[in-house]
Design goal:
Length: 321
C-alpha cells in the first residue's frame, strides 16, 4: 500500500497539454457561470423572463427588456455556452484518450451533470421558484441545485486534473481513508445545503440588522426556515474543524504522499479563510459581493477536497480501473 502512494509522488510533473489547459478553462468558466447565477438570485432577477423557458417572455431574444430581464437572459446565454464548452471537452476527450481513461469518464459525467444543471434551472423557472417567490418545494429545488452544482464542478476538476499528468484511477486505499473521505463528502454537502437554505431565507425574509435577524431566528412564530438558519454557522464551524482534521489524517494514512499533502494543505488554508469570510458575510448582512466570494470559496474548498481524494487514488497512467 505504501509503495503505491510513494509511486504517486512524481506524478503531475509533465507540461500541460492543450487539452489540459482547455479542461482547466472549462472549470474556470463554469465557476464564473455559477457565480453569475448567485448574482441572478441575490439581485431578485430570477423571474426576469417570467415563467418561460427556453424562451424569454415567449421570445427567443427579449425586446425592450428590463434590467432583471437582461440579467436573467445573459445567465441563460452563458449557461448555454457552458454546455457547449463541456460538449467540446467530451468530444476532445473521446478523440484524445482511450476508452478506459479516467479523463474520458470524468468528462462524460461532467456532460451528464451539466445537462441536469440546465434541467434544474429550467424547472426552477417553470415552477415559479425564482426571485422572491415562495413555494413549499423551493428548499428542495435549492438543495438539489447545490448538490448537482458541486458534483458537476467536481467532475470538471477531475477531468482537468487527470489530464494534467500521467495519472489514472485505481480504487485502492486503507479503509480508514475511504471512511474519512465519505464523511468529508457528507459534511461538505450538508453544510452546503444549510448555506443554500440560509441564503434563500435571507432573500425571502430580509433583516435590517443583526439583532433583528437573531430575533427572527429564535422567534417561535417565525417561518421554519428562519428558525433553522442558525444551523449553518454552527455546521460550518464543525465542518471546518473536521475537514482540517481529516486532511491531516488522510495525509498520514497515505504515508506522507506529496500530492495528497499538497491538496490537504490547500484544503486546510481555504477552509480557514472561508470561516473568517463567512463570519464577515454574516456581520455585513450578506451583501451580494460577499455572497459571491463566499460561494466561490465554498467551490474552491470542494475542488480541493475532490483533488485531495483523487490524489489518494492516483496511479501511473496504464494502471486503469
Amino acid at each position: 500500500m505504501t509503495e503505491q502512494f510513494e509511486s504517486n509522488k512524481s506524478l503531475g510533473q509533465t507540461k500541460l497539454s492543450g487539452f489540459a489547459k482547455y479542461a482547466w478553462f472549462a472549470v474556470a468558466y463554469n465557476l464564473v457561470v455559477i457565480l453569475w447565477g448567485v448574482f441572478l438570485r441575490a439581485s431578485y432577477s430570477g423571474d426576469g423572463c417570467g415563467q418561460h423557458w427556453i424562451t424569454c417572455h415567449g421570445e427567443a431574444i427579449p425586446s425592450a427588456p428590463e434590467l432583471k430581464t437582461l440579467i436573467e437572459f445573459s445567465h441563460r446565454v452563458t449557461s448555454a455556452l457552458a454546455g457547449l464548452v463541456v460538449l467540446v471537452l467530451v468530444i476532445w476527450a473521446f478523440r484524445k484518450f482511450d476508452k478506459r481513461s479516467a479523463v474520458r469518464r470524468a468528462a462524460f459525467l461532467s456532460l451528464f451533470f451539466i445537462i441536469v444543471e440546465g434541467a434544474i434551472g429550467g424547472g426552477l423557472v417553470l415552477t415559479g421558484n425564482t426571485a422572491d417567490n415562495w413555494t413549499p418545494w423551493r428548499p428542495h429545488w435549492a438543495a438539489g441545485h447545490l448538490i448537482n452544482t458541486f458534483i458537476l464542478i467536481g467532475f470538471l476538476a477531475l477531468t482537468a486534473w487527470y489530464a494534467s499528468g500521467a495519472r489514472s484511477f485505481i480504487p485502492k486505499a486503507p479503509r480508514k481513508v475511504w471512511l474519512l473521505l465519505g464523511f468529508g463528502v457528507a459534511a461538505i454537502f450538508i453544510t452546503g445545503i444549510s448555506g443554500s437554505m440560509a441564503a434563500l431565507t435571507g432573500m425571502l425574509f430580509p433583516s435590517e440588522s443583526i439583532a433583528e435577524g437573531i430575533r427572527k431566528d429564535f422567534d417561535p412564530d417565525s417561518h421554519i426556515l428562519l428558525r433553522l438558519r442558525i444551523l449553518h454557522p454552527i455546521l460550518s464551524i464543525f465542518t471546518a474543524v473536521f475537514l482540517v482534521f481529516i486532511s491531516d489524517a488522510i495525509r498520514k494514512a497515505t504515508g506522507g504522499d506529496a500530492a495528497v499533502g499538497k491538496w490537504a494543505n490547500i484544503l486546510s488554508i481555504l477552509v480557514i479563510i472561508q470561516v473568517f469570510f463567512g463570519g464577515a458575510t454574516l456581520l455585513m448582512l450578506a451583501p451580494i459581493v460577499m455572497q459571491l466570494g463566499h460561494l466561490l470559496l465554498a467551490d474552491l474548498v470542494w475542488i480541493s477536497f475532490v483533488l485531495m481524494g483523487a490524489s489518494v487514488f492516483a496511479a501511473p497512467r496504464g494502471d486503469h480501473l
